[in-house]
Write a structure and sequence with these properties.
By secondary structure, this protein is of the alpha/beta class. It has three domains: 179 residues, FAD/NAD(P)-binding domain, CATH 3.50.50.60; 113 residues, FAD/NAD(P)-binding domain (3-Layer(bba) Sandwich); 110 residues, FAD/NAD-linked reductase, C-terminal dimerisation domain (Enolase-like, domain 1, 2-Layer Sandwich). Helices cover 31% and strands 24% of the residues. It has 16 helices and 22 strands. The longest helix is centred in the C-terminal third of the chain and has 20 residues. It is globular and about 70 Å long. Pfam families: Pyr_redox_2 (PF07992), Pyr_redox_dim (PF02852). Belongs to the class-I pyridine nucleotide-disulfide oxidoreductase family. Its cofactor is FAD.
Length: 492
């Protein structure tokens, strides 16, 4: 390993990582495993957005809500639910999983990876040079021999509408770190954050109104958003599709928020939460010093090298490259890029061919995602529309999940739906979508099938245990075979 070296006020490392969230930690781990010295720079909490304001706290809060909903779907068990959730207990559970927003354990984890942690705001001073400014104003300059990896994540976007500053809206951070249940909550946005926040706060006792300009979960198959909207409505959420907020006002700082809607109506709420998109956290890291535009998404090649930067030294991982704003996908990129950094540093060949050791091929073909609503929505790969747009000849296979006996045993009156998207020319799966209680546990098998390009002829030999919900695979594949044997035109 090349050790850190002091030289004229600059400390030199093989690799510098900007951002100590899960993505930054993974690239640091892989680079260190390749024998390289690593510095990790973090200006907030070590562990990043995911650990303290996104994935971890939201799922810690959602789990009690979904658990009670699951119990109520089972006769003989539903009778045991005699009260409402203990919100203090739910918030305490969340606080446990975010370690009360104390990052000391994760900071020790950076050290256990073999990396050095620098707390402060990292900014580029030039190619391979980063200055870290601590809260007390002290500065230190770091230089990278081989690579700098940007893993600074993203920030919530608030729309430019009149009164938004006066309204003091929540973002995902307030939505996951609040310990007070608003009597009335307006959630703006029908994407993943919006539907999860609506599920969560309705379950905790708030009266939630969800406003979306178009369908819910618009990047999934249309039936996913429809079933999630139905589930939210059944839980008491007022779901309004095709509605836009044109103005906000909060005349009393301690009073309610008034939302003016483009349909002429007005909505009153105690708090308003905006889940209207993300922007890259690259606005103040000195991109202009290395020939890039501050605040921009960073386009990358398959090894996550940033396009338009000479010298094969700058990498962008996770949210900042805009490929898939999902923690697990960013970690995948970080592992792959960390290995590529090690190979380039050692002068070894880089295997960047599709599905190669240093290629993030899954970013284009097999991105899994789960939304922990009630019902859950889980998908991987292409939707039918995306597959057609990409030029594939496809057939879709659709079944209600209660075709599997395991689904009926999981929940009385189980309601859910599954779709496979089949490439007719190669007879492999291009995508799969599941909506229903507990379907997140079905997703990895679909991800293996899509990423592995498993032929359907072979996939039918992967036997699902009886009686599990996974047995739906048997019925989906049988339905495809029957459809194949019936002469008619392909789907596209």
């Amino acid at each position: 390993m090349s050790a850190p070296r002091e030289n004229q006020g600059t400390t030199t490392y093989d690799v510098i990582v900007l951002g100590a969230g899960p993505v930054g930690q993974n690239v640091a781990d892989r680079a260190h495993a390749a024998g390289l010295s690593v510095a990790v720079v973090e200006r907030e909490l070590v562990g990043g957005e995911c650990s303290y304001w996104a994935c971890v706290p939201s799922k810690a809060l959602l789990r009690p809500v979904i658990a009670v909903a699951d119990v109520r779907r089972v006769d003989g068990a539903r009778q045991a639910v005699t009260g409402s959730l203990d919100t203090d207990g739910v918030f305490a559970r969340r606080n446990h999983y975010v370690a009360d927003w104390d990052d000391s354990r994760q900071a020790l984890g950076i050290k256990s990876l073999g990396a050095d942690l620098f707390r402060g705001h990292g900014r580029f001073e030039g190619p391979g040079r980063v200055t870290v400014t601590r809260d007390d104003g002290a500065q230190q300059t770091l230089t990278a021999r081989h690579a700098v990896a940007v893993a600074t994540g993203s920030l919530p976007v608030l729309p430019d509408i009149p009164g938004i500053e006066e309204a003091r809206p929540w973002t995902n951070r307030h939505g996951t770190d609040s310990s007070t249940v608003p009597a009335r909550l307006a959630v703006i946005g029908g994407g993943g954050v919006g539907v999860e926040m609506a599920t969560l706060w309705q379950g905790l006792g708030s009266r939630v109104t969800l406003l979306a300009r178009r369908s819910l979960l618009p990047r999934l198959e249309p039936f996913a958003g429809e079933l999630v909207a139905q589930g939210l409505g059944d839980a008491g959420v007022d779901v309004r599709i095709g509605v836009r907020v044109t103005a906000l006002r909060r005349p009393d700082p301690e009073g309610p928020v008034f939302l003016t809607l483009d349909d002429g109506g007005e909505l009153e709420a105690d708090e308003v939460l905006f889940a209207t998109g993300r922007t890259p956290a690259t606005g103040d890291i000195g991109l202009d010093r290395i020939g890039l535009t501050p605040g921009s998404w960073l386009d990358v090649d398959t090894t996550c090298l940033v396009d338009g930067v000479d010298g094969e030294w700058l990498y962008a991982l996770g949210d900042v490259n805009h490929r898939a704003l999902l923690t697990h996908q960013g970690k995948y990129q970080a592992r792959t890029a960390g290995d590529a950094i090690g190979a380039r540093a050692a002068g070894r060949p880089v295997d960047d061919a599709p599905w190669g050791d240093h290629a993030t091929t899954a970013d284009q073909h097999a991105v899994p995602q789960v939304f922990f609503t009630d019902p859950e929505a889980a998908a991987v790969g292409l939707t039918a529309g995306q597959a057609v747009d990409a030029g594939h000849r496809i057939r879709t296979v659709d079944l209600d999940l209660n075709a599997a006996q395991g689904a009926n045993l999981y929940a009385d009156g189980y309601q859910g739906h599954a779709r496979l998207v089949v490439d007719l020319d190669r007879e492999i799966l291009l995508g799969a979508t599941f909506v229903g209680p507990g379907v997140s546990e079905l997703l990895h098998s679909a991800t293996v099938a899509v990423a592995g390009e498993v032929p359907l002829k072979r996939l039918r030999h992967a036997i699902a245990c009886f009686p599990t919900v996974s047995e739906i695979w048997l019925f989906l594949l049988a339905a495809y075979q029957r459809d194949k044997e019936t002469p008619h035109a392909a789907s596209a």
